[in-house]
Design goal:
There is one protein chain. By secondary structure, this protein is of the alpha/beta class. It has twelve helices and 14 strands. The protein folds into two domains: 105 residues, Beta-Lactamase (2-Layer Sandwich), CATH 3.30.450.90; 225 residues, Rossmann fold (3-Layer(aba) Sandwich). Helix 5 packs parallel to helix 6 and helix 7 packs across helix 8. The chain is globular and about 60 Å long. 39% of the residues are buried.
């Protein structure tokens, strides 16, 4: 959706946010607008927002149907492109103050993997014909952007039928060598799991699942990867080992052995990232953990010995694997980040 912004004040806030490379804008009644810049919150000068202002902005950004759901107490997500060319992902919810909005400012163009400073081995994951590839990390770590960059790179290099399932659609792909269809939950399909099962009937080579948010979606993703498709998705976890354990633990005890077997068979790679502050300059960069699933790792997953996977990543560096701590150490020794940032960002 492309439309004019609902108020001069929001236009000004978005302009300032764009100029300052903010990742997010927060609009809360009773407070001045706040920006998240390089991971830190900063309030803008000016009068606090009124409940009516945030309600009017929410009504315009979410449109009638979305605003109606918000007023009924539901959380609502949407994406839009403004006349000024800003790409927004909006999340609206009710709070004690009134309508509250979190607005993510997305890149106007899909960045390349190289510009994101991801390890070269990440680009090779798109060349695989089957398997499950997961981009993991905490909220705001850039995993959705990395996934989009991988899909865009795939479109430039291979002829594939690609179906994306997203909530909401953030980046718009322009089909190059591949045939790309994008579906949005709520508008084009009722749920991730139903959309994924439907995609299997549409002759796909690659299925892009915006997020494995529910057990049904996890089960469908595993099935799709098992049956010879390349499935690319994201998950909110802090490490490669946590990613595997999160998927297994989501299922009941009686199913976990089967899920471990499925993961051992179809999991191809886990790329876990977080954004860290540079020592010089204002922009953050990604620190990345990479797990490539080989026969040894498959056995560890199947036999519930995931605590040994970190050792496999350490000894598999020549294959392109690396732990988060190894990459943080490299960045610190290369004078890109300071030692304290490396320590704070480490899982271990």
């Amino acid at each position: 959706m492309t439309a004019a912004l609902p108020s001069i004040r929001l236009t000004d806030v978005l302009h300032v946010g764009s100029q300052r490379d903010a990742s997010d804008i927060h609009l809360v009644p009773g407070l001045a607008p706040a920006l998240r810049v390089d991971g830190e919150l900063a309030f803008l000068s000016g009068s606090p927002l009124t409940a009516q202002e945030t309600s009017d902005i929410a009504r315009a950004l979410l449109e009638a149907e979305g605003f109606g759901r918000l007023e009924s107490g539901f959380d609502v997500s949407a994406a839009r492109v403004t006349d000024e060319g800003l790409v927004l992902r909006i999340h609206g919810f009710r709070s004690s103050q009134g309508c509250t909005l979190a607005i993510r400012l997305l890149n106007k163009q899909i960045p390349t993997l190289e510009s994101l400073h991801l390890p070269p081995v990440v680009a090779t994951l798109a060349q695989r014909d089957r398997g499950l590839v997961i981009f993991a990390g905490p909220t705001g770590s850039g995993k959705s952007t990395s996934l989009a960059a991988l899909v865009a790179g795939l479109d430039e290099t291979r002829t594939r039928r690609i179906i994306t399932i997203e909530d909401p659609i953030e980046y718009r792909y322009q089909s190059g060598r591949s045939l790309i269809t994008q579906r949005e939950i709520g508008r084009d399909a009722p749920s991730f799991s139903s959309a994924l099962l439907g995609a299997l009937r549409a002759d796909p080579d690659v299925i892009v699942l915006g997020e494995m948010r529910e057990i049904a979606a996890m089960r469908a993703a595993l099935t799709a990867a098992e049956t010879g498709h390349l499935v690319l998705t994201t998950l909110h976890t802090g490490s490669a080992v946590q990613t595997i354990e999160r998927i297994v633990d989501a299922f009941s005890g009686s199913e976990q052995a089967q899920v471990r077997s499925q993961l051992a068979q179809c999991l191809s790679a886990v790329v876990c990232q977080r954004l860290v502050a540079r020592k010089h300059g204002s922009r953050r960069r990604a620190a990345v953990e990479v797990l490539l699933v080989n026969d040894a790792v498959r056995a560890m997953i199947r036999e519930s010995r995931t605590h040994l996977i970190r050792n496999a990543m350490t000894t598999g560096r020549q294959l392109g694997m690396q732990t988060l701590e190894h990459h943080l150490t490299e960045l610190a020794l290369g004078n890109e980040i300071d030692a304290e940032t490396a320590r704070r960002s480490s899982e271990n």
